[in-house]
Write a structure and sequence with these properties.
The protein has 235 residues and is an alpha+beta fold. It contains seven helices and ten strands. A hairpin with a 2-residue loop joins strand 7 and strand 8.
């Protein structure tokens, strides 16, 4: 699969959620970039996640499929909630909901300013594709709401979203318009996921922020074995 078109390739076949696409064998992977081209149809996206791959590309680039090595994951019992965040959660500073405003969350992730980043990788194509996965029941969000200054209306202050494959949750992105909003949404979602049997959360690329929340690095081969054990099988 190769393409030099910008964004999804309109000539690549559309795969519905029940269809499978086989990416290159992991034994052939020599880099974080696994393949280039294709589209963001449900079957191709789900096939990628099932094989430990996700789309990550910038404006003007074709769809780039990546699988970082090492990977960052969070396991049950390893989730780290600081004392300050525990106070935020216990005081109910934010009202947390789930799958109530997926569109608002993914658009919030696309629009929020990120330090040392020029623009966003969450394009309209990405938004449309994950909203379709959400409609099909594969993509989920957590929302953190905060009362407006007048105290009579709740506004979306932050959130996170990702893809659930059986007992593996693949986190994608988060945003905050108020301090601690994204953490409140993510930590609440993680607790709910773990309480309902999720075996691990894939946080993709390791970072100091994710490590502070309980994330740990795992070499890609071990991650792929873990994913194979806990993912859902569609075929």
């Amino acid at each position: 699969m190769a393409s030099y078109r910008s964004g999804p390739d309109p000539d690549f076949p559309y795969l519905n959620e029940k269809m499978h696409f086989q990416f290159p064998d992991p034994k052939e992977w020599n880099d974080d970039i696994i393949s280039i081209g294709g589209n963001l149809s449900p079957g191709l996206l789900l096939s990628a996640y099932e094989q430990g791959i996700f789309p990550w590309y910038g404006p003007g680039e074709p769809v780039i499929w990546q699988s970082p090595d090492p990977r960052c994951v969070i396991f049950p019992g390893k989730l780290r909630i600081s004392s300050s965040m525990l106070k935020v959660l216990n005081k109910g500073v934010f009202k947390i909901t789930y799958d109530e405003n997926f569109e608002g969350v993914i658009k919030g992730c696309a629009e929020i300013f990120r330090y040392k980043q020029d623009g966003t990788w969450i394009s309209k194509d990405i938004i449309d594709a994950y909203m379709e996965l959400h409609r099909l029941g594969w993509a989920h969000s957590a929302e953190a709401w905060h009362l407006t200054d007048t105290g009579d209306e709740w506004e979306l202050a932050g959130g996170c979203y990702g893809v659930l494959l059986g007992r593996a949750f693949c986190g994608e992105s988060m945003f905050a318009k108020r301090t601690n909003a994204s953490k409140a949404a993510f930590l609440s979602l993680a607790q709910i996921m773990f309480d309902h049997g999720v075996a691990f959360i894939d946080c993709q690329v390791p970072s100091k922020h994710l490590i502070s929340l309980g994330g740990e690095e795992m070499i890609r081969t071990d991650f792929l074995a873990l994913l194979k054990k806990y993912r859902v099988f569609r075929y």
